[in-house]
Amino acid sequence: MIRAGFPKRDGIVEVRGMGLMIGVELARPCGELVRQALDAGLVLNVTADNVVRMLPPLVMNEAEAREVLARLLPLLEAFLEKRAAA
Predict the structure, then answer these.
(1) Which of the two residues, 33 and 5, has the higher pLDDT score?
(2) For residue range 16-69, what is the model confidence (pLDDT) as tens digits?
């Protein structure tokens, strides 16, 4: 399992990857994150109803990866907090 900057947090089951393909398994369905990510300038998809899958380009550099995390982590936090507050 890899963590790659993702926080240890309730609601995140596992972060895994092979090469640049990264999957973030959440504890609940997360299809709504696809639209939220597009609004934040990110393209990702959701597989198996609860796995956020990212396939960055092979030419991605470290600064670009940090930018992706800076946009993605707040989306995940808000998504997970929304359920915790309910």
Answers:
(1) 33
(2) 998 889 999 999 999 999 999 999 999 999 999 999 999 999 999 999 989 998
Domains of the chain in start order, with CATH, are 12-85 (3.90.1150.10)
Q: Strand, coil or helix: what is 31?
A: coil
**The token pair that represents 34 in the structure block:** 């696809």
Q: What are phi and psi of 14, to 5 degrees?
A: -160, 145
Q: Do 43 and 53 meet the contact criterion of CB atoms below 8 Å apart?
A: no
Using DSSP's 3-state secondary structure scheme, residue 49 falls into: coil
Between the alpha carbon of residue 44 and those of residues 55, 63, 69, 79, 85, the distances in Å are 7, 19, 12, 15, 25
